């Protein structure tokens, strides 16, 4: 077997008649792993079977209108193309080649590593230093990061300067994790590694507050005392946890849960003797 032959895996994974309209099925493809086979508008497609967020089996999610929603935290993908449609996933699902055989067999051909990883990052363009445009993004949460990323994707093709400015001291991270686990290490929950920003020429200013916007001269005022000229600005400053306006809510050891620092501060105080009161009862 040549290595290039080994790169691909193919085979009949099920029969067309096994899947009804608007149904999905996780089917084994050779020894590479499972692929998600979907029937939408009478056509069968095959995409990655695991969510690109934390790998949930998408077959346990919800399918409707050609979109599949992850059962764990709600990321949404186009079931035909695999494109990411909704946070908290960032990458798309790989989309595999499907051929329906004469006997109705659903034949799938796929790159072995894509079946295993079940994720693809969209192709990106390079920054052109002679492009004078600057897009400033205020807020380094997922919305800010996704904006920067989509601008650099080939489909959008933005080659100017991108500056992402954030008050928090960390690279954009998965805030969803803040409510699901304690003792978090930031390196485990960042959405993209530092090398990603370098590779795609996305400047990231951490621990920097935008304190004002002068829209007539197109200048951002930064908490560091310096200014930043922009061509366009995108505001992605998210929300804040609301502290109830009751006496004592600002006392020591009263926390809101919004950042990784909040989570770690709560964790530091937990011991067998600690009494904990939780105000608010959502699932977060
Ligand atoms: C505990 C918790 C659990 C969650 N779990 C889930 C889940 O399971 N599934 C799900 O889909 N969603 C979940 N969410 C919601 C999800 O995290 C938010 O919808 C998402 O973070 C919103 O992204 P955003 O980029 O709009 O804003 P944010 O994540 O709030 O980011 C905004 C950023 O902008 C910065 N900023 C604000 N003002 C300025 C300024 N003037 N200058 C510079 N920077 C500024 C902020 O410091 C922040 O870093 C959860 C949220 C929390 C708090
Ligand atoms: S694992 Fe799918 S949204 Fe988190």
From TrEMBL:
Pfam families membership: Pyr_redox_2, Rieske
Entry keyword annotation includes Cytoplasm: no
GO cellular component: cytoplasm
InterPro entries linked: FAD-oxidoreductase/Apoptosis (IPR050446), FAD/NAD-bd_sf (IPR036188), FAD/NAD-binding_dom (IPR023753), Rieske_2Fe-2S (IPR017941), Rieske_2Fe-2S_sf (IPR036922)
Cross-referenced Gene3D superfamilies: FAD/NAD(P)-binding domain (3.50.50.60), Rieske [2Fe-2S] iron-sulphur domain (2.102.10.10)
One GO MF term attached to the UniProt entry: 2 iron, 2 sulfur cluster binding
Keywords: 2Fe-2S, FAD, Flavoprotein, Iron, Iron-sulfur, Metal-binding, Oxidoreductase
Cofactor requirement: FAD
Keyword Iron-sulfur: yes
Domain (Rieske): residue spans on this chain: 11-107
Stated name of the protein: Rieske domain-containing protein
Organism of derivation: Diploptera punctata
Taxonomic lineage from the root: Eukaryota, Metazoa, Ecdysozoa, Arthropoda, Hexapoda
